[in-house]
Amino acid sequence: MNCTIPLVGVPFCNETGCTKIITLMKKNDTTIIIDVDSKTIHAPYADTFSCRESYIVISAEKGSK
């Protein structure tokens, strides 16, 4: 996913481009793991900044919602 995000407190730059790569790492009856790697090209104060997030959802029972 490509998007533009606003910046606050960065001189001469009020927005930057952001690329998010969203990957489904694992999915079975009781577990879902999603990995998100967000890269910005102008902030903070470097050529590239990367933030990696992982979301883990675990169900107590097989097939429950």
Verbal overview:
- The structure is a single chain.
- The chain is an all-beta fold and 65 residues long.
- The protein is built from no helices and four strands.
- The chain has strands spanning 2-6, 15-27, 31-40, 49-58.
- Strand 3 (31-40) and strand 4 form a beta hairpin.
- The protein is elongated.
- It starts with a strand and ends in a 7-residue tail after the last strand.
- The model has no long low-confidence stretch (mean pLDDT 84).
* Gyration radius from CA atoms, angstroms: 16 Å
Q: Strand order, main sheet: write it out.
A: 1-2-3-4
Strand content: over 45%
Report the principal-axis shape: elongated
Low-confidence stretches: none
- How far apart the termini lie comes to 27 Å
Order of helices and strands: EEEE
Please tally the helical runs, counting DSSP H or I stretches of 4 or more residues: 0
Query: How is the main sheet built?
Result: 4 strands, antiparallel
